[in-house]
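Exam revision sheet. Question 4 asks you to relate a sequence to its structure. Input first:
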Amino acid sequence: MVNRKDLNPDSSPRAAYGARIRRFREDRGWSQEDLAGYLSYSSQHVSAVETCRKPPTLRFSRELDLAFGTVDSTDSFEREWRDIRQGSLLEGFPEYVGYEGRAVEIRLYNIGIVPGLLQTPDYARVLADSAVRRGAITPDQAEERVAFLMERQAALERPRPPMVFVTMDESCIRRPVGGTAIMAAQLARLVEFAELPNTLLQMAPYEMGERRTFDLPVNLLTLSDRSVICYAESQAQGHLDRESASVLPMLTAYHQLQGEALSQAASVDMINQLRKGTP
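Answer key, structure tokens:
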């Protein structure tokens, strides 16, 4: 058991989160083993989150809320987890992800890297580690980013999954990330994605030229009430837009992009040719 003085809630948001777990369980007279009995996690995992050796996740936070009876309250662990995310993700993105998990249609366009929802864990890890080496994020933030991405992907595996339309610039599959083995697995993942009944994958080839309608990545969500939300980001800034006057033209531009892009069959053929080492 880590000594209480080793938990300083003022040292970081994650430390405050861990100290709060300890306070809540000790108020109930629970040990870490007792708390683990209410969760799908081990007591070792509980200890690691309490002492900041592991970052909290959305699933873990929701299970804590069930155990402590704080679901949907102002002091829920899910709310605290989302506040922590705000500190390591671009503005607007955590809110976007909340909508993403409820969307009935998802439309994505990416340049340079494979969209997060289609990334393999190894591909995502290479990108996060590269950001650490550049000093853009800390190792802890890298861990959080990868864990957060895996949770986003898992949230789409539901009884009635959304339709997912993905249009990728050709640079996404031409840019080598992590070496031959990681890229081979990532390209295989794209082909598997295209085979799903609720997906459409299209490549925007280089020769599209000026007919490419977007110069930055764009995410468009259609919700159950048919309203549309747009999220777009640059290298250092994200923006979530719900105003139909500005969002609907983005949806029109996306449809125009799809009209110019390769069909799914031709897109999969391009990916398979690259997997075989054919230009």
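Marking note for examiners. The longest helix spans residues 139-155.
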